[in-house]
Write a structure and sequence with these properties.
The structure is a single chain. By secondary structure, this protein is of the alpha/beta class. The protein has 2 domains: 207 residues, 3-Layer(aba) Sandwich (Rossmann fold), CATH 3.40.50; 71 residues, DNA polymerase, domain 1, CATH 1.10.150.20. The chain has 13 helices and 6 strands. Strands 3-2-1-4-5-6 form a 6-stranded mixed beta sheet, sandwiched between helices. Strand 5 and strand 6 form a beta hairpin. The protein is globular.
Length: 285
């Protein structure tokens, strides 16, 4: 299957192409991107699955500072983000109603969680199949512990290959992720939202923490251990809460959108998408 990080490619098109906030143009760019990735990867990886961010990420419940700066940046931006998200959401629903692709949109989680656990599900008996993830998100490198999972970045137009995904995940947990508002394990929860610098995490200190984690004794007494648990919960995709995982898998398994093939042609006609209409076979065959 081809797991497309929907919000990422949609917003990526708007930002990198510097698109005007024009609904028809954004719709065209999103659908054309899906067509392009499907055409390139379908023969080896199978059908497209559209995976979108939900509206109430569980991470914000356990860590309110999660991605707090993104909201501030959008408020300061000249772009009309409310209109952008309205269009992106409407196009997502159009795809669900009119295209032969599964659309996984679970309110309580990010696309990261859904992509990860759909991929993990391929490890269950009888579920194995090759998986291509279309996303530039570095968090997905941890999924390369599974031999059937590959990742392609729309940003660099290259495959993302991680030689040691377990070590990559550990480094990410210890270092945190500033873009998501997650500090390193030596820094407190509020350092980013209060505009303070993180406590430096040297290579020597990081290596010492890794040794302690491997040893496993008296970790609860370590000054950094509480923050390590915070970061692991936020970054390790195996930490998605079980009820959310169940909802992801049920949403994925309950869909059978094959009958939508006949809706693609009238949809393109209705939306006056002449260029895509000429390539309709690349959406359905």
């Amino acid at each position: 299957m081809i797991l497309i990080d929907y919000n990422a490619i949609a917003i990526g098109n708007i930002i990198t192409q510097r698109l005007d906030i024009d609904e028809n143009l954004i719709r065209h760019m999103i659908l054309n991107s899906i067509r392009m990735y499907r055409k390139r990867f379908k023969k080896e990886y199978g059908e497209v699955v559209i995976v979108a961010d939900g509206w109430q990420n569980w991470r914000k419940e356990v860590y309110p500072q999660y991605k707090a700066s993104r909201r501030k940046n959008r408020d300061a931006s000249s772009l009309d983000w409310n209109e952008i998200f309205r269009i992106i959401n409407d196009v997502r629903e159009d795809i669900k109603e009119n295209f032969p692709y599964k659309v996984v949109h679970v309110g309580e989680c990010e696309a990261d969680d859904a992509i990860a656990h759909i991929a993990y599900n391929t490890q269950e008996f009888g579920q194995y199949e090759p998986v291509m993830i279309i996303s530039a998100d570095k968090d997905f490198a941890q999924l390369q512990t599974m031999s059937n999972v590959k990742q392609y970045s729309p940003m660099t137009k290259k495959f993302i290959v991680e030689e040691n995904p377990r070590l990559q995940l550990m480094n990410l947990i210890l270092s945190g992720d500033g873009s998501d508002g997650v500090p390193n394990v030596l820094s407190d929860d509020d350092c980013f939202v209060e505009g303070r610098r993180q406590t430096p995490l040297t290579k020597k200190k990081k290596e010492a923490i890794m040794v302690d984690l491997e040893d496993g004794e008296l970790l609860y007494a370590a000054s950094w251990y509480r923050n390590y648990c915070r970061n692991k919960q936020l970054i390790d995709l195996k930490e998605t809460p079980k009820p959310v995982v169940e909802k992801i898998i049920n949403t994925f398994k309950e869909q059978d959108p094959c009958d939508n093939k006949g809706k693609v042609f009238p949809y393109f006609v209705d939306k006056r998408m002449k260029n895509l209409l000429e390539s309709i076979e690349e959406f359905i065959s």
